[in-house]
Design a protein that fits this description.
By secondary structure, the protein is of the alpha+beta class. It has a single domain, classed as Nuclear Transport Factor 2, Chain: A, CATH 3.10.450.50. It is built from 4 helices and 5 strands, in the order ααβααββββ. A 5-stranded mixed beta sheet has the order 1-5-4-3-2. The longest helix has 16 residues, at 2-17.
Amino acid sequence: MLEQYKKWTNEFLESWKALDYERVLATLDKEAKYYENPIDEACQSFDEVINLWNVVADNQKDIDYQYKIIAYDHDVCIINWQMNRTMTHNNVKQEIDGIFQISLNAEGKCIYFKQWRFTR
């Protein structure tokens, strides 16, 4: 199971780094419960998830990341990730430290996604 979680995380973050939102979306099951923010409700449809991701190529660049899987079992994986990026509208550099909580289906697509993040 660890290898499946690593494969998913690598593909998700590499797709983000490449600013390829369609590739990011391909890592997600169309019925996934997707929480952009842990205190908000999950997205109500996959179209909402698409709307979150289709602006990435326009609003950020120079992405670099690292991650560590900190806990997992058959049903859930917890990933600590760090990212540096530049926001394109104002050229502000950001550092992010975050957590992903994910669950994958048998095909390796994410069926549950929740993230917590701190941006500096």
